Amino acid sequence: MKTVLRLTICLLIFSMNTANCQSKMVTIKGGTYIPLYGRDSMQVTITDFQMDVYPITNAQYLEFVKKYPKWKRSQVKKLFADDNYLINWKSDTSLGDNQSLNAPITNVSWFAANDYCECQGKRLPTVDEWEYVAMANETMPDARTLETFNEYILGWYEKPKTFNNDIGSTFKNYWNVYDLHGLVWEWTSDFNSVLISGESRKDVDKDSNLFCGSAAVGATDLMNYAAFMRYAIRGSLKAKYSMKNLGFRCVQDINK
Amino acid sequence: MKGILLLLTPMFFIACSNDTKKADVNAADIQVSQEMIAELTAPPLVPTPVGNRKAKKLIVNMEILEEEGEMTNGVKYVYWTFGGSVPGSFIRTRVGDEVEFTLSNHPDNKLPHNIDLHAVTGPGGGATSSFVAPGHEKTFSFKTINPGLYVYHCATAPVGMHIANGMYGLILVEPEGGLPKVDKEYYIMQGDFYTKGENGEPGLQPFDMQKAVDEDADYVVFNGSVNALTGDNAITANVGETVRLFVGNGGPNLTSSFHVIGEIFDNVYVEGGDLLNENVQTTLIPAGGSAIVEFRVDVPGTFILVDHAIFRAFNKGALGMLKVEGEENKTIYSGVKQEGIYHPEGGGIQAMPNGDEPEAVASTTEKSLEEKIESGKQIYMQTCFACHQAEGQGIPNAFPPLANSDYLNADVKRAIGAVVHGLTGEITVNGEKYNSVMTRQSLSDEEVADVLTYVYNSWGNNKTNVTKTQVMEVKSSH
């Protein structure tokens, strides 16, 4: 009840507010796809939705924190954000010296990211939604089998300190969405539904829908390795964790 | 009196059960007393031996860093490391220690990591309990039950990639009372690397997954880079000292045929366990395995450490150096006593330098430059290629380059001399110091002229046409 109330208040405040801090969204046309290292029987259907073109920036999050003081670093509940929360900010409401206003916000917990999206009348994308949009390159909705595409992704995984680059500094994909690869990792609403344990070699035994063992055993192509690393990072997270390389963006359902 | 008795009793007990598995079972019951922060060292150094210390609670703090480093001159690589080095920090424990292990993943890192220590008895060797996101840390503890030298490595998906990027190291569990004392101890670990560009291609080289799957290594190196154990980074000892090498192999793919040129291992703890083998020339170290080798150095000189799968040593970087200083011992190794010419049909040994062989003099007509270069190239590939390499680039810190070589271009006679007489001692080539041995090459005057003409007319050298006459002059002037 309290949540609903809070949400309503959020929405009210939001609708009264000017729309300029609202980030630009594009429509993603739904479809059916097989998630990385899935089998034919594991097709996932995505319905149409809207997605932020860019990850949320430092500037946008700064506004958010000013409006919702409970997400200030000094006031945040430890249950909802660990000690790394906004750790590089100079104070509750000012960025660190080397942080760019247009760089993606990082060092935020899942709780914070989730609340941010809710307060915009949006939500975090699911893993399936995120992966669906992220398999597109500049020209194709599904570029996962392209060697160059996977090399680009793997190349980023090895590149240090990309979190302070400005949003929009990577490529615009088929859906007109930027920065899914090459800037920061992104929170998803159900990040912890992926059954990857700390012992990844053991995971090949797990017969789970999301993490198909038998396919993973033969995972020798680059596509699977890129995916492995994303699933690994999600598997290592807890909702209160804040990380220097982890930001988020929001999505919205399309009301029909 | 009573105290001594008490002290003796457990010693007896251990002595009696020494050779059985029972000793291991007992190790789990060893009581720990105090706490101690573990000394961690970057290769090639190792921490202080445990000696007689009692089992303790040992605090190990290990930090994971993803950082750019140098594979070889001009070639950069992003290494993932335990403690900032490849291989990772050396951990030294004794049987019965209770290790409290904290793994910290630096906030700047992009990936989650964990650690699987082969010294751990438990699921995943600690991997399950140590899986840690960037900017976080995990602590777990284990008891060291079995003595031996163990590999540790990262086991996060994709496991092969984490290992291929350098995430491995060694943890030593010493037996009660420690390993026997030696004079010098070093830490060496082999690893294979897979880069987008071929061996030697400059710039920042990304990891190449396909090559790793194909087990087609571009670099096979000791201690993470081509030059980690050569030149100024060579390990050292003095004549008469006993050297112990803790040798590991991180893989991810290749098995090492570890050998030290000019030494015989007096002792090898086979695969890092209890089995002791003596008088070993080359010991096999599996990927994810280790060996402890010990030898007394009796004569001075530079001893080359190699993976005796020899193309890895001379072409991919699996080469290190042990420099031994001290008095010569002519009984053990004489050095060159006499040089001569060998005639299989008889004629005995003839002394240099009256090497004006009749056959060589017989053909007096000088070949054309093209013919000489063509013949010289063949001789080069048979005789010189192994050390000076296909493009005359040499091997950094071991064998000087012939390409663009100021040393060659400055003095033709000196170059001829090196081929016909051999060359030892320090020389400077293109600003780098080399101190190796080039043996005298058994080539005819004509062949020497041809091969040198080929070298001088390749790779940016000054196009000198070396004649047979010049070769003969150098020979007789000596």
From TrEMBL, chain A:
Q: Which residues form the Sulfatase-modifying factor enzyme-like domain?
A: 41-251
Please give the InterPro entries that the UniProt record associates with this protein.
Answer: CTDL_fold, Sulfatase_Mod_Factor_Kinase, SUMF_dom, SUMF_sf
Signal sequence annotation = 1-21
Do the record's keywords include Signal?
yes
Source superkingdom: Bacteria
Q: Does the keyword Signal apply?
A: yes
One Pfam family of this protein, by short name? FGE-sulfatase
SUPFAM superfamilies (UniProt xref): C-type lectin-like (SSF56436)
Q: Which UniProt keywords apply?
A: Signal
Q: Name one GO molecular function term.
A: formylglycine-generating oxidase activity
- Protein's UniProt name: Formylglycine-generating enzyme family protein
